[in-house]
Design goal:
heterodimer; A: alpha/beta; Fumarate Reductase Iron-sulfur Protein, Chain B, domain 2; Rossmann fold; B: alpha+beta; Uridine Diphospho-n-acetylenolpyruvylglucosamine Reductase, domain 2; Uridine Diphospho-n-acetylenolpyruvylglucosamine Reductase, domain 3; Alpha-Beta Plaits; 4 domains; 5-stranded antiparallel β-sheet; 18 helices; globular
Amino acid sequence: MTLDGSEAAVDLKIDADDLNKCVQCGLCLPHCPTFRVTGDETMSPRGRIKLMREVQDNDAPISSDVIDAFSTCVQCRGCEPACPSGVPYGHMMESARETLADAGEMTPTWQRLAMKPLASPALLNAGTRALSVAQKLKVVPERLGLSHEIPLTQPKLEATGSDVYLFTGCVMDTMQRSVHDAGLQVLTKMGFGVMPTGDAAPCCGALQAHAGLAGETRSLAGRMMQNLEPDVPIIVDSAGCGAAMKDYGHLLGTDEAVAFSERVFDMQEFLALHVDKLPEAEPLDLRVAVQDPCHLRHVQRVHEATRTVLRPFVRELVELDDEGLCCGAGGAYSIFEPELAGQIRDRKVASIDRATPDVVASANPGCSMHLGSVGVPTKHPIELIFEAIS
Amino acid sequence: MVLSKLRELAGGSKDESSGDPFVDALRNALSADRVKYDGAHRSLHSHDASVFDGGNSGPVVYPETTAEVQAVVCLANEHQRNVVPRGAGTGLAGGAIPLGVPVVVAVTKMNAILEVDEANSIAWVEPGVINLDLTRHLAPLGYHFAPDPSSQQVCTVGGNVANNSGGPHCLAYGVTNAHVMAMEIVLPSGDAVMLGGLDAEPQGFDLRGVFVGSEGTLGIVTKIAVRITKNRPAVRTLLMAFDDVRDAANTVSDVIADGIVPAAMEVMDKAITAAVENYVGAGYPTDAAAVLLAEVDGLDSGVDIDADRIAEIGRANNATDVRLAGSDEERMLLWKGRKTAFGAVAQIAPDYYLHDTVVPRSALADVLDQIYAISDKYELLIMNVFHAGDGNLHPLIVFDGRDEGVLDRVHAAGGEIITASLDAGGVLSGEHGIGVEKQKYMDRMFTDDDLDHQNRLRQAFDPGCRTNPGKVIPSGHSCADIQSLRSVPKEVWG
């Protein structure tokens, strides 16, 4: 198998029935951020599925254009709710990427190396400190899109009981621990004793799975399932991590993993289930636009909860007019494909401008950093709630 | 970015000569990144959303201006190559399938809404603007673009012009032709001209009317002045259930005969309703043999009178349930179900062939009976969903293309459906067009003289027969040799 080669066909290991579900109607096209900004069929879900078929069923070569088509996918999964045939696109793309990464066709070494520290708290802390110093010296490459000042030291999150876990994860814990802190305090005020997961669950493995390194995700998932107490709900304040953890059942295919996934809740989802326990407070004098992270809206599909729990705490809650089209962050996508990520973000920023908010509520660290790096004021919904009730 | 730089360093630069002087010339005229000649692009642009064998795409270009479209057409003439325009690729009759290894002109990047003139109810748009995007853009002003094909969330206004597209709400408002006032087109010669005009009664021959619905055979539209329609203050949507499809069909006939012109009247039979309900959960009754969705719009006082009368007519035709949508959300959900019906069938089988014929409203019930008989004869599942108000049938044959010999049965059943529709006094296509799908039936509708004259009209625009060749007009009457267009050696994989 070569980039432009004519060698033997590759089995992408995509489920044949899944692949057959697509009737090529094209209803997904406008819901795909890369098709929206390029108008290019190879950068659409329908096109990518057709290429998967050509490779898997019709012996088409793995050309550089096929690789481009797959690697430019943000994996936002905005196409899935738009699909009346129920094509499980996200899982198909993950399978394709895993096969191609295993074969050395995708996810180059620099990307693999860049993701190594995520699973290692010591490495990540050292790296983040280095980045913080670099930021102060103004030598951080722009493509990293760092909007916030990275703190050199972080406040320690103290457990307040043992009713629920608060998943702290990797990048978010080093860059936005204040969000975790807000969540921990709100949950505690609601009467839940909270255990931050810390080093027991260093990383969910979402970015690795997106990059075709699902083997690493499986091992991280296994470790997390072993380290965390059974039956305790796990609350996640990063939409991408929550979506990945809710998918462990599919990824590992064991009853244990299915049971684990069932006790994973997004922060706002959990709050909405216990909305009667939320303290009352004077609403913040803010016009807030809700930006739904894709993995909250299209994958977990619990984005309505954000509105339910946030509405009482702000003066005005407004919707964006782009039907939840991706912002281009896509985990590490904005670093791996900065040009497309920037074009996709331009559309989102235009939609935000039309909504004229004081602040944008975004429940995913990737989205808030990506939008923040071009000056969009963002806050996690739980930060706003915490601010209101404090 | 880094990846592409690494590839350039490794000698994989895409800027080097393609080995085809035509492609090199296109890259000079546009830019290298907007002229694609790789296997992936050519394979994907060899198909549309139809079930027909793909064609063979040559280079795929993404022009951004009229001048660039002109440059592409002129270069194609110079190099004696064919040209096929393409919008979103959602056509169901194979109209955008490239025959004769043409340059495929994808207008998806020409997607600007150029001007909205509220005072004169006109909007100027580029051809790649998505139909629903235009309506969304107009919503704050209280207007919409009336043609609303089921694919409106993805299909382009340029594609609507090419196919003279209809949609559920075209019953009261008319199809695309009634909403296009003027167009800038690039002729097959490469010249850009304006057809039609913004005056109420433009002088001279109505060449605009000739172009709308010409399926890309007369040139490429590059700017369109569309009529925009004021939203009505009140809307009522009725959902009626019937134990017999005939009762639903008769209700539709009786409503129109009663003098009411609803905004839309749509029927779905039991099988398709079940698939739709499974996707949207709009509360469609899944035990009914047929459901009728009827919508009236206008002034507050008028819509209630019309809605009551339609309900009365439905009950007189044995409606088992009559329900008025209680909120805008419920109404939108019901329409979402109707408009995604075709895609939803993949829950049942992986392939479908969606037909499109029109019969007189009074013949609806009889033709439907025949279609169900054809379904039994060929042992195929045929579902019916149709724009009942204007007699536009959309029988949907669902199948699994992996079953041996099934395609032969599908095509044979399709042929009988067309025959039944024509025998009832109907026509070949309501809105999908002829494309490659219905060429072979054209002689059932038209005499040899008719077809020769249609071809002469076509050649008046395109004397070289190079713009979307091999479409609409059947072999024997066409200026293009359809056999040879198909028999081009396969250079494209897949």
